[in-house]
Amino acid sequence: MRPPLHAWDLSPEAARAVQARLRPQVVTDTPLPLDAIGAVGGVDISVKDDTARAAIVVLRFPDLTPVDVALAEMPVPFPYVPGLLVFREGPSILAALARLERLPDVLIFDGHGLAHPRRMGIACHMGLWTGVPSVGCAKSILVGRHDAIGNEKGAWAALVHEGEVVGAALRTRDGVNPVYVSVGYRADLDTARALVLRCCTRYRLPEPTRLAHRAAGGEDVIGPRGEEQLSLFR
Q1: pTM higher than the cut 0.85
Q2: Residue 173's closest CA among 187, 189, 191, 155?
Q3: Which domains does the chain have, with CATH numbers?
Q4: Do the beta carbons of residue 116 and residue 124 sit within 8 Å?
């Protein structure tokens, strides 16, 4: 991973200044090499009693077989402020990433990338920090609006905020509510959307973040690594 970009124990004002400083460094127009991806990591975080629990589940791609899981818990260093959640969750994510055998080829975050008030959601921030291509896939809208989309799997509409396309509302199963895909780092929207769709099977959420959500919630994951921890996902 790259050298640290900043300290985590900042004031909200200083944190917003960090986002403004980092935003021009975020690469958001490079297509993901979908046919060359061998492993996808899903990232999710739960916070309880001021302790963040980060979970990363790595799946082989495209068959989506689980190959690694890493967990990390630590006190949150930052208050709850909408738009600045990465400053609460980032340190635990980095600790979990350090426990993987190897970094995956791309990360999907349960959260936003460009679809953020300052175009610097968690997928942008952590992608830039790690250098790993990253995509945001959220369950709800933070900013923006979109037109109606069809009910069939794969239907989508651009998510637009202040006249700018910041993501896509994507239907991942027939008739279910869409997810909200946005570019994080070293990706473009077309390939980010395609990756999320390829990672969806029987559920609304892509498998990497769906399983990471379960692990972050404390479902019997033994680790930091080993066959025992993967048995939950078979």
Answers
A1: yes
A2: 155
A3: 27-233 (3.30.2170.10)
A4: yes
Give, for 18, the enclosing helix (H) or strand (E): helix 12-22
pLDDT score recorded for residue 3: 84
- Picking from 52, 53, 159, the residue whose alpha carbon sits closest to that of residue 116 is 159
Q: Are 103 and 186 in contact (CB under 8 A)?
A: no
Quickly count: other Cβ atoms within 10 Å of residue 48's Cβ: 10
Extract long-range pairs of 13-22: CB within 8 Å, 24+ residues apart: 15/78, 15/81, 15/84, 15/87, 16/83, 16/84, 16/118, 19/84, 19/118, 19/120, 19/125, 20/118, 20/120, 22/120, 22/124, 22/125, 22/128
C-alpha–C-alpha distance, residues 5 and 56, integer Å: 21
pLDDT tens, position by position, 29-55: 999 999 999 999 999 999 998 999 999
> Is the backbone peptide bond immediately before 24 cis, with ω within 30 degrees of 0?
no
Mean pLDDT in each 10-residue stretch from start to end of the chain (234 residues)?
A: 89 97 96 98 94 97 96 94 95 97 97 98 98 98 97 98 98 97 98 98 96 86 43 43
One-letter identity of residue 33: P
Structure tokens at 17: 């200044």
- Check residue 231 and give its pLDDT: 47
